[in-house]
Amino acid sequence: MLEGKAFKFGDNISTDHITPGRYFHLRGDIEKLAEHTLEDADETFASRVSEGDFVVAGNNFGLGSSREHAPRVIKQCGVATILAESFARIFYRNAINIGLPVIECDTSQIEDGDRIQVDLDEGKVRVPEKQIEVSFTPFPDFMKELLADGGLSAHLQKNKGFKIGGSSDGP
Amino acid sequence: MGKTLSEKIISSHCGKEVTPGELVIANIDGALVQDGTGPLSVEELRKANMVMAAVPDRTVLFLDHASPSPRKELSNAHIILRNFARETGVILSEIGDGVCHQRIVEDYARPGDLIVGADSHTVTAGALGAFATGMGSSDVGFAMALGKVWLKIPEAFRVELTGSLSEAVYSKDVILHLIGSITADGATYNALEFTGPGATALSMSDRMTISNMAVEAGAKVGLFESDDSTREYLEEMSRGQDWKRMAPDPDASYQRTIELDLGTVEPTVSCPHTVDNTSPASELGEVEIDQAVVGTCTNGRIEDLRVAASLLRRRKVSDQVRLLVVPASRRVYLEALREGLLETFVESNGTVLPPGCGPCVGVHQGVLGDGETCISTQNRNFHGRMGNPKGSIYLGSPATVAASALTGRITDPREV
């Protein structure tokens, strides 16, 4: 069970909001780059977020560029999980590939600053103080395995190639 | 039941007949990374002790986003890619060679290919009938090393184009109009497959502009059938042998069909700060601009430069406006040079930049100042995209951008 504070964002938070192009030159230094996480959506986010907190958003989170630095800087800030109504495709893939769980669920009742609990196995998000409980579909087996292994690189090294549904497909 | 073009291509790359929703491991024909995403791919491969390439003659590392490099950190990122190319034998596309997506359609992509790229606009090669899609640094890095990638089979939308474009209307207007109507996440996870007599009549350059922006509706791929125009284009690129016909089965099943009569499309612009915030250029009212950009992987081809030059010839851009022109590749640059187009741009008081991504990513070559407004032929107008969150970006066709550069305000090209 994960527990932390919600940082609420709106719809269409792009990879340019998450890690702006003007910090392109910092991509080789993820710690420095992470100081600017979500800067163009909320200038104070990186200085306020703590280990185990959650990013909560509306529709189409992470649209835009393929830059994997976007989920990486969010993870670097200590964020445990991103919850959104929906995610852009590449961002979703990238997050799973780096071992950051991303959850599609109804986020409309969650407000900025709420203390929330997330149970990944059970597929539940709760706001205990408000007696809110929201369900989500747990990850398919392959993604569960990628996350459990710690991301794509670890998965490929552990299984000597890809493994889907019990069958392995080596290099 | 028949297969969509997406299903056909992926099926032929994973040794079985696929259906939407299924997860497969597929073999790739080619891969690309660029200077913003590639160094992370290389770092991941080095950490995993997998410094190798499965298809080195079709794996390309592009130095295009910061090109030439404006800072030492980015020069060092270029060194990482140059060294990796030397070690593994993959291809390096140097400063001045051009934007990855343009070079991929000119020199590498073939109808029926499965191509992955660490850049969201990898979808451009869908114009040739290649299943080309964008992913992150890890995905593409390991795909380069192993020749394989995990894929979820997408549902497809069939986009049936009929009619023909009106005067001063271009394929850029078509795709902006379409994204305006289906919204920026209207096709998330889906494949867009363009078909119909309107699609057949579009030039390859037109198709590339449309495929390039499929991702701005959230799509995984923007596919055109490979037909006689595709063959002629590949012959022009001295790659006639790479052609084969590709089309979906006539009884393929689509999640949705969208019909669009090209004749109904007007010069269209996307307003700040999302691509789906569209309006006909004529209905926009007075929007003054500070900068106008013609180029990028969306509209930096010779056809685009010809359109812009035809409006700018023997005229000067407004003294309120900086006009920047960025040919998409060395090939385009040379053609524009030989045709006298670059002379036209320079005489009209424009600035010609070297082939590459130019100012589109906000790294260099035209970063906006506070409160400034730009109209560009690029594909994104997100908050902060051109290097400054206090800037505003409008998107339009090369004709709309050139017309706006002349008047100093966003202008329907039929007005000038």
Structural features:
heterodimer; A: 171 residues; alpha/beta; Aconitase, domain 4; 9 strands; globular; B: 416 residues; Aconitase, domain 3; 2 domains; five-stranded parallel beta sheet; 14 helices; 31% helix
The number of distinct structural domains of chain B comes to 2
- Our measurement of the CA-to-CA distance between the termini of chain B, rounded to an integer number of angstroms, reads 52 Å
Which structural category do the helix and sheet elements of chain A fall into?
alpha/beta
Oligomer: heterodimer
State the secondary-structure class of chain B. alpha/beta
- CATH homologous superfamily placement of the largest domain in chain A: Aconitase, domain 4
| Strand composition percent of chain A | 15-25%
As a percent range, the share of strand residues of chain B is 15-25%
The sequence of SSEs of chain A as H and E is: EHHHEHEHEEEEHHEE
Using the alpha-carbon principal axes, give the shape of chain A.
globular
Mean pLDDT over the full residue set of chain A = 94
Corresponding CATH architecture of the largest domain in chain A: Alpha-Beta Barrel
Report the C-alpha radius of gyration of chain B, rounded: 20 Å
Arrangement of strands in the largest sheet of chain A: 4-3-2-1-5-6-7
Q: Output the CATH homologous superfamily of the largest domain in chain B.
A: Aconitase, domain 3
CATH class of the largest domain in chain A, named Alpha Beta
Short description:
The complex is a heterodimer of chains A (171) and B (416). Chain A has 171 residues and is α/β, with parallel strands linked by helices.
Q: What does the model show?
A:
The complex is a heterodimer of chains A (171) and B (416). Chain A has helices spanning 15-18, 30-34, 45-48, 69-76, 89-97, 141-149, 152-159; strands at residues 2-8, 54-57, 81-84, 102-104, 115-119, 124-127, 132-135, 162-164, 167-169. Chain A is α/β, with parallel strands linked by helices and 171 residues long. Chain A folds into two domains: 2-138, Aconitase, domain 4 (Alpha-Beta Barrel); 140-171, no CATH class. Chain A has a seven-stranded mixed β-sheet. In chain A, strands 8-9 form a two-stranded antiparallel sheet. In chain A, strand 8 and strand 9 (167-169) form a beta hairpin. In chain A, helix 6 packs across helix 7. By secondary structure, chain B is α/β, with parallel strands linked by helices. Chain B folds into two domains: 5-262, Aconitase, domain 3, CATH 3.30.499.10; 268-415, 2-Layer Sandwich (Aconitase, domain 3). Chain B has helices at residues 5-11, 38-47, 72-88, 100-107, 137-146, 171-182, 197-201, 204-212, 228-236, 296-299, 302-312, 330-338, 341-347, 398-407; strands spanning 23-27, 30-34, 59-62, 91-93, 114-117, 131-134, 148-152, 156-162, 191-195, 221-224, 256-261, 268-270, 278-280, 291-295, 322-326, 351-352, 373-376, 392-395. In chain B, helix 6 (171-182) runs parallel beside helix 8. The interface between A and B is large, with 43 and 56 residues.
